[in-house]
Design goal:
Layout lengths: L2 E7 L5 E7 L7 E10 L4 H11 L8 E2 L3 E10 L10 E5 L9 E5 L3 E3 L6 H4 L2 H14 L6 E5 L3 H12 L3 E5 L3 H9 L5 E2 L6 H9 L6 E4 L3 E2 L1 H8 L3 E2 L5 E7 L3 E2 L10 E6 L10 H4 L13 H13 L9 E6 L3 H10 L6 E5 L3
Parallel strand pairs: 9-10, 9-12, 10-11, 12-15, 13-16, 15-17, 18-19
Antiparallel strand pairs: 1-2, 1-4, 3-5, 3-7, 3-19, 5-6, 6-8, 14-15
Helix pairs in contact: 3-4, 3-9
Length: 349
């Protein structure tokens, strides 16, 4: 029986590793020899922080991770064009674990070209999350927009909006993340703790006003929402207009009627249609004519943009650590977010 090492969250919120037998493949599932896995500094670390704040029985452990890359060793059932030996990116909660071996449904796996490293490919999942948010935002050539939070999702969303032809102003208070954003081509960054972000945003989009804003952060978003309303374009009758998309886990109180003008507030969830639909994950297809950009297609596009050097992910990686140091990685992401952002875990076999 094949053994694997995987990262787990203990009952008191510590991150460590354990060894277990690799489960048998299910129908339409692939066994992946993982080479790199990306920790989500937002969703995953929030789970760790919540467990530390609300500990449970020490024997209650959670395995985690949902973004990795490696090579296919074996496929059971419909391979959907995948082959053993193929270099791939994979995703999925409960599937693409922080582990050196993973069993993943076929529709959550996409091939990667030779010029994309495993570390780069591990960004495909969070890239698809950002892409789904951008699709919800619908940026157009020549529009102006703001992306609040320049973590991994906010950074990639900013880059994708710029690839769509929009002009983007990033809001970020952590200087390291602002520097990373600039290294990725997001040249307009405002530190909202040190500058008047509203005036900076108005000047950025003058004389038109901003057309959209993406909220890519967690926590209380009320103050940010009020500030963003003051930056949006305004119709002749005095109403704010444009789109606000919530992709991060922030909480925002939205006033109706004149309180929010004619703003469209949208939520963006996950990586695109299909994810968390078990029938689809395990090989079912949606009609392409009606559902064009599924999770698989979003993953494919992110990988292609990385391959073409149009979407930059290398500057996002602040640390490469072995899987056995997953606990150190978690502590860094929680304790020093100004120094750590993209941590790629590397696997030994």
């Amino acid at each position: 029986m094949l053994e694997r090492t995987l990262a787990i969250i203990t009952g008191d919120g510590q991150v460590t590793t354990k060894t277990e037998t690799v489960p048998e493949l299910k129908e339409n599932e692939a066994l992946i020899k993982v080479h790199a896995s990306l920790i989500s500094p937002g969703t995953e670390m929030n789970g760790v922080k919540n467990r530390r704040a609300n500990p449970v029985d020490q024997n209650e452990e959670n395995r985690f991770g949902y973004a990795n890359a490696g090579e296919i060793l074996e496929i059971k059932g419909d391979a959907k064009g995948l082959k053993p030996g193929m270099r791939i990116a994979a995703m999925g909660g409960g599937f693409a674990l922080h582990a050196n071996y993973a069993c993943v449904p076929v529709n959550l796996i996409v091939p990667i070209p030779d010029n994309v490293s495993y570390g780069q490919a591990s960004y495909a999942c969070l890239g698809a999350t950002s892409l789904q948010a951008v699709r919800r935002t619908v940026p157009e050539l020549g529009e102006y927009g703001m992306v609040l939070g320049q973590g991994i999702v906010g950074n990639l969303a900013s880059q994708l909006c710029q690839l769509s032809g929009a002009r983007v102003l990033g809001w970020e208070s952590l200087k390291t993340r602002a520097e990373i954003a600039k290294a990725c081509g997001i040249t307009k960054i405002v530190n909202y703790l040190e500058e008047d972000a509203v005036e900076a945003a108005k000047e950025f989009a003058a004389p038109y006003g901003n057309d959209f804003a993406i909220f890519a952060f967690g926590g209380d978003g009320d103050a940010a929402y009020k500030s963003v309303l003051d930056c949006m374009k305004v119709s002749a009758d005095g109403h704010q207009m444009g789109r606000i998309v919530l992709v991060g886990g922030c909480q925002v109180k939205i006033g109706g009627g004149a309180a929010s003008g004619n703003i469209d507030v949208r939520s963006s969830a996950r990586t695109g249609p299909g994810y968390h639909d078990p029938a689809w994950e395990y090989g079912a297809d949606y009609p392409n004519a009606f559902i064009q950009f599924t999770t698989t297609r979003n993953l494919e596009l992110i990988v292609r943009l990385i391959s073409e050097n149009k979407l930059l992910v290398d500057p996002l990686t602040t640390h490469n650590l072995p899987l056995e140091e997953a606990g150190k990685a978690a502590d860094m992401l929680i304790g020093t977010p100004d120094q750590a952002m993209g941590i790629v875990l590397e696997m030994s076999h």
